[in-house]
Amino acid sequence: MTNDSESQLPAEDADEAGSAADAPVEAVPRARIPELLHAAVVSVGGVERPGQLRMAEAVADAVDHGEHLLVQAGTGTGKSLAYLVPALAHGDRVVVATATLALQRQLVERDLPRTVEALHPVLRRRPLFAMLKGRSNYLCLHRANEGTPSEEGEGLFDPVEAMGGPAGKLGQEVLRLRDWADETETGDRDDMTPGVSDRAWAQLSVTSKECLGASRCAYGQECFAEKARERAKLADVVVTNHAMLAIDAIEGAPVLPEHGLLIIDEAHELVNRVTGAATAELTVGAVNRAVKRAARLANEKAVDALQAAAENYHGLMETAQPGRVEELPEYLGYAVTAIRDASRQVITSLGETRDKGLSDEDAVRKQAMASAESLHETADRLLRDSEYDVVWIERSDRYGLGTASLRVAPLSVSGLLREGLYKERSVVLTSATLKLGGDFNGVAASVGLPSEARLPDVRTPGDTPETAGAGSDDEPVPSWRGIDVGSPFKYPKQGILYVARHLADPGRDPERPDMLDELADLIGAAGGRTLGLFSSMRGAQAAAEAMRERLDQRILLQGEDTLGELIREFASDATTCLFGTLSLWQGVDVPGSACQLVVMDRIPFPRPDDPLMSARQKDVEQRGGNGFMAVAATHAALLMAQGAGRLVRAAEDRGVVAVLDPRVETKRYGGFFRSSMPEFWYTTDRNQVRRSLASIDASAPPVRPVVKRS
User: Residue 309 contacts by C-beta under 8 Å, 6 or more apart in sequence?
Assistant: First the structure.
């Protein structure tokens, strides 16, 4: 399946095409930004908005003066064009990093092609653009044609036969992948429709450590991942994701081409994505896999040592209790040390022994080496006992009943981001939710931009980055501005923020009879049309069960079907409700009358026993700060702001955001949460809200179904 928007320009246009690989392109004067933005907006059939222009001009200023910029741009602002236009006008290579596949596709398939064409008369060139992802997102031709390294250490094997043959479900998926390999021009998993399971994809893809390398692989010239990298090297705009950005910024392994401007969209997700990329895990399954993969090529002594270490670790993890580990117990330290030392022996052995008679040796060796190196790195990190890391034991059904794993994550990523992101390039971070509690300071600090480095929101003559001062290492602190360009929506007239002050404060038990009564009344008044956002799946399930018994409206529950199908069903029927947890707080876009009531069951504070969050909170307190507000409240406020943003997605949308947690009104910190959400009309009057919901329901236009993507 071909993604036409990523293909290169035809030969007749090559002389007009600007390329980042050529000589620097002259920048378009900032005074022409309004003209360029107008052309781009017209090209996509949009409407110009004051906030969009303000954002475009602020991005241009930041690039011109070598500064960094945080931009809160509310839903409907059109922020993609607001940063693409000044980026293309500047002439230097740009990297755009996003959190979701949906926005990556929108940029590459819709916004960039139209914007490039619209700006061509002024730029006198057509900038090239490309999408770049991690290697495991692309199908591996070597595995598709030669087979997959056996987990049993017996060379390569055919995954079709190993998975029940052509008649088996996984076998069918692998066959479909092989056929697709002959058709696709990108090899990008996300271009395959319908897709395949993770297990099937894993048979025909490789990580960067497992890859043979283009020069050693028989299929190196045709490799999809290598072609994507080559397109990125030639492109003026590279669209990638937060995970790739994290690898490039914090692991010291450049995977992105050099660029003068970095734009981070959906920036509210950045800290979580970078934390995820910097988190390592030592599982029983991973150790056992390393043993099997090493069995064929490593010497017997090394393999036996790793096998013994695996068995010892497995026995300890069967009875290990979940929770933070501030210092590894002696017995666990010995077990991890044994894994580290044995994996080091395997690595040495794999490097020394080579059987020239094996045609598949390189692929088998690469996979075995990747497993052993990953084990060694993780075990070594666990044993360092660094004050900058948090270690904990976690239980999960993924690893089988009765087993657990050790995890290690950075206590903070702000320092990593400060070192890796802000040198030698301007960075623009944008999202609909960057101001929490009324200012940018909390989010800025979390991404490595301290408050003392903030410049005034409005530029004044002579204001330069050097005015920000110096950091603890006598290097200049990255200077930044924060601006809120607002939203084209009239929030006070389009929405109501209702806090159910009369309810009892929620406890740890999800059973809240008064909350369920309130929820049933609100749904009844709204005639359905409800998106229920719950702080836990247990709470969502309990509420769904109760509402199904009490109400005639259909209640959909996350997990009972794919998320995409649930959202389509929700959007197609006004009387239907959708309940769920974390991914619904941030991932639902249902404009129109299908969603006129957004309910939050409680403030989504992190669990008190969350090892990483509690460690971060304790660290802030030890440094004299307010750990609760800096960590727990900030985490919850960001989710609530995102959740409230699900209500108004278009200019004609109307409705209510109902928070069924009285603490938003009764506690001192309640104002922090209210000021983090859109400026809806605020009330605690339950009768007024019921009347408003009934009125909105009575005058609601027909729903606008979500079209299924082909």
Answer: 287, 335, 338, 339, 341, 342
pLDDT band per the 50, 70, 90 thresholds, residue 165: low
For 572-623, write each residue's pLDDT tens digit: 999 999 999 988 998 788 999 999 999 999 999 999 999 999 999 999 999 9
What is the number of structural domains in the chain?
4
Domain membership of residue 693 as a residue range:
491-698
Task: Give the strand order in the sheet containing 261-264.
Answer: 129-131, 237-241, 94-98, 261-264, 426-431, 68-73, 480-486
pLDDT band at 2 (very low <50, low <70, confident <90, very high): very low
- Min mean pLDDT across 194-208, 389-403, 495-509 is at 389-403
Hey, CA dihedral for 40, 245, 190, 643, is it positive or negative? negative
Instruction: Kindly report whether the global pTM for this prediction surpasses the value 0.85.
Output: yes
Whether 252 and 315 share a structural domain: no
Cα separation, 471 vs 288, in Å, equals 46
| Tokens standing for residue 543 | 């509420």
Collect contacts of 353-358 with beta carbons under 8 A, ≥24 apart.
353/297, 353/298, 353/299, 355/297, 358/155
Domain boundary among 381, 410, 439: 410
CA distance 97 to 428: 10
**Residue 482's domain is classified under what CATH number?**
3.40.50
Asked if residue 638 lies in contact with residue 436, where contact means CB atoms within 8 angstroms, the answer is yes
User: Domain check: are 436 and 503 in the same one?
Assistant: no
Q: How far apart are CA 467 and CA 453, in angstroms?
A: 8
Q: Is residue 6 part of a domain?
A: no
7 inside domain: no
Amino acid at 235: A
